[in-house]
Amino acid sequence: MVKQTADIEEVMKVYDEPLSGNAEKDVARLTAMLGQSDDIQVGHFLKGRIPFSVVHLEAMNNEEMIADAINSPLLHVQNQPDILPEFLFEKIEGTQSGPYYSFKEIIRSLLHGEVIVFVQGCKFAAGVIGLLVEMRNVDEPANQTVIRGPKEGFVEGINVNTSLLRRRLRNPQLRFRKLSAGRSTQTEIRLCYLEDEADKEVLAEITRRIESVKTEEVYESGMLEELIDDYGTKHRWYSPFPTAQVTERPDTVSSEIQEGKIAVIVDGSPMCLVYPMTFLSYFHSAEDFYQRFDFASFIRFIRFAAFLISLYLPSIYISVTTFHPELVATDLLINLAAQREGIPFPAFVETLLMELIFEILREGGVRMPRTIGPAISIVGAIVLGDSAVRAGLVSPAIVIVVSLTAISSFVAPAYNFSISARILRFVMMAFAATTGLFGVMIFSALLLIHLCSLESMGKPYFSPLAPINLKHHKDGFFRFPLWAKNVPFLKPWIRHDGKKENRGT
Amino acid sequence: MKNSINRWQFGLLIINFIVGSSLLMAPTAATSLAGEGAWLSMLLATGAGVTLNVLLYILLRKYRFASVYVISELVTGKIAGTLLNILFICAVLHLTSLIMRNFANFTNTVALTETSSHVVVWMPIVLMIFSVSKGVQNIGRVNEVLLPLMLTVVIGTLLLVLNNFETSHLVPLFEDGLFPLVHGAYPILGFPFIEMLVFTALATFVTDKKHLITYTAWSIGISGIILALAIVVTIGVESTYFASRETYATYSMARNIEIGELFQRVEAAIGIVWLLSLFIKMTVCLLGVLLGLQHISKKDGYGAFIFPCAVLVWAMSHHLHPDIVDFSDFVLKNWTLYWGAIYIVMTGVLMTGILLGKHRKITHEGNRLSG
Amino acid sequence: MKTIRLLLLTAIFPTVLLSGCGDKMELDQLAIVVAMGIDQVEDSDDIEVSFQIINPHGASARVATEGGGGEDASVYTFTTRGKTIVEALDKAKNITPRRLFFSHIYYLVIGESFARETGISRLFDFVERDEQMRMEFLAFIAKEETARNILRTFTPLDENPAKSVRDRVLVASGSLGIKKNISLSDALRAYVSDNEHPIILGLRNISSEDSSETDVLHRIDEHSFSLDGLAVFENDRLKDWFTTEESQGWVFLNGMVGDRTVFDTPCEGGYAGVRLHKLTQSTNASVKDGRPVFEISLDGTGYLLETTCTLDLTDPDDMEALKEAVSNELEKEIRSTIEKTRTLGFDATGLSGVFRDHHPDKWQEWKDSWFGHFMEAEFIYNINVDINLTGMRYNAADEE
Description:
By secondary structure, chain A is an alpha+beta fold. Chain A contains 16 helices and twelve strands. In chain A, helix 6 crosses helix 9.
């Protein structure tokens, strides 16, 4: 039974009618409610002693299973003399759910892929669970690849995803709770957590937020993320940073759950959300734990440095060439000045132009068909850059700056985070172009203030940097080896003995 | 509006408060009065600062670290208490605007000479408004992230400039006896050590008040040592002839960093550190003002006062002193007396309250401003 | 109400940001000044200021567009005059199409007549107060020359003549062996303090007449300027020049020596050249019988570079003799400096500073009549030179 949110209840109230007990009439009523939709498959078995009907939606179930598990046992039982209609349900050789006394529940189960069995003389119907649809195979996750590590990724079906998680965490404490959202889509959502690790406050908060979602449709976890996020309240109406981790890999989700976080799986999407999130988690990738610890620590630094480069480099270039030429070594300044002779645009316009062109190239590269994609992007980048320099539109230094920035922004393992860096970079360029390094400093301070006050499901976002928690730095900037004390996996919010470890405010 | 900070953040705020504003100004003031012994007068001032502040906090501990606004009302009654609170609020507002003036002067002298000072003032004011609207917790966290970086840059700068260090500049130490040292310590005591009074408004928000006095004493001590080191290095690199005449002594000292061909002209780093530090100091002072206003008006939060106070800070910073000479003169001559008087009044109020037994009336419920 | 607030914010915010553009200086609107020269104008109170600015095309390592470089000059020099430096700079705005930018200045050269007659104190305030100038750039006095002529010379091997001068001091240390350069702030410090007088490096022009054209760069012979001795100032006016020997002595007395080649050590039959790559020096001051006593100690380690002596270098005694000779040579240099100072009439050696540091109370007493005491001072020399290695040979070729 899936718990329904309030507005779904509203929608379904229309269908709240009791059954009549007459199988044929009930089926007719059901199909009438569903508007005689042509994909409703009805099997009437009305000739026997106890007539029954089987209704299901086309291609949602295994036809053989229906025949074997439902039709034949019930047909065989027809000949037994003393059987009551209610007991017919026990003969069904499949997992049942029900009993459903109202059409509202029947329609909901039918739409969720159950096979409904109506029996003459029963004022209730039963649903048989047996969803089998065509789905994508479990394959390598498209966006989060690792060199070493399992190459399984989530798929669209929520039960397959659940099984992938179960297979990794064979912990009896692992729990799944079902919710649903979206009036029109009635998407099933599952929360997954470890009973003894997870923070009860966060769990209650997530549940409360999902249940208060009022929307028509939820197709993807991204839509759900926007609806339950910390924004939308009076104080935090916008943040450029995402507060949920989005991942396609079951091993990542398992390790997060082990840390005490809560995973939210949305039916129909291979992207799973994990709450609560911290800022540093965006620089972690699953591979950090599969490779050696020294290499992993080094790579984490590189990722952080790349993030800073992708955010700051164009702004620093603009502010240094325009406002603070004294900061550059003299020889470099002479070369830069030589390159800028005869370029018609000021530094800011030049940078903006090149950045925009690169953004266009990048977006184009995403949508291009696989066969010509890489060729065009290489050609585009090199030829465009070089031709622009030769045409005298931009200086060579700016091509280097922009390409380095672009490459650095690809280093972050989480895509939703590098998006925020892309937007922020433009704002920072505007500040740099108007007030130089002073403006860059002010904007960085602004971001820092914002980050320090941001919360992810009520937990501080910028932890373990602020409030400082040295123990968590074991999996922060560095990755300490697994055999070091008190690691492997840190529990940021709740410890085993129930005491909260994170005492900082 | 979250108003709780922990002890560690409190201590770090103190360090930033003291090191930040004095880093660029103290060497000039001290060297012009005390000559080569300026670093000794800094240490002297640190000692005096630690003593005075520890005394104050011991008295406060008797009141269970309630906010100073609550205490003054409790001890002197409603009318006198409100009057005292208003005076204190005005003093802190004055301090904030002077720091802002310092900020604007520095930026206009060193970095953006042609930009109007209004722009330079409004940008940090927007930051302050933003940070203050989220409560004390926000600036505590921001400072926690920034202070280690800032101290690294400061100490790094001091180390990097050592290849130009000449001990001969430091030498004639007690040339005129002990009086110049004390004379040099006098302005430093007022600015920044007695300004720590502002923290009495914030001490009530610390979640874990156990060894607060130790933390405070250590923080002040460490900041004093860092400042003394800065003065030593400044004098050693630049000699007193320069250091006493420069407007921004440490910044000019940082200009001497020259390691190889490439690593030159990095004094912008210390400039940025100083600006951020001033910003944090201003936010703390503004918080003190807003908390006082909140207490007087008996509202739930200080949100309504943020923007008017910001405008006041801007206006005061621009109009109180017509030029930089008048400003420096005012600060050097009057600041210690001004805040010294406030200190004496406050200590007097606290002690009166203890003698009259009023401190027993503070229970956890009475400490209304804790959040 | 909310809309109005939002509109106001949207209107004010860009205004605030955009007013910061007042400080913007695009790179192609800058004229990077690499050297500055100050000269005196005859019969007038004016000063003549010359600047050398970089031409990026000629000076850059790699020219971005095709077919550039080569024949372009890497620097250009302009001259203006005015009563103050600021006036002269302001007039430069009428000549150069760009804004002058001083942060990358390499050195300042002062004409000799300006230094003698007008005094360098006129320069100091502008250089200190401007926020673009850093005090650490070098200063030179143009020996028997005007600064303007120095700035109009092209030098070989380095496209940027200003950089070549600075490299000469920093990299090559000249033949004075100075460990760190003498910058303008040192001169200023000496001028301000009451116990020291400024000393500034000298620069002499050794080029021929037409060294101000770029095709001089195709010539193989001399067009350059060289470091030449030290200029001695009394307060702010140039009084005299130290010769090479005296300058070397001065460098020793002030502890600025790094490594040096002692090149004309006389020994039997010829001269020897020894390179001392490690030198430590200390000066001690004391008072005896009402006279200052200076004890100058010098310890050096070196190796032999060249000799035309008739010494037998396989004999330890002869080696000792060589070391003695080197030590004597060094002592001679220091003596010559002190002798010269005695003729000058004021203490230009910097020993007054040493005395002040060691005996501050006596210094207070003797401050005003220091030179008299200096004349009576006694000097004790304690010079030890060690020659460890002799290069690739023991004895010289004409030993037979």
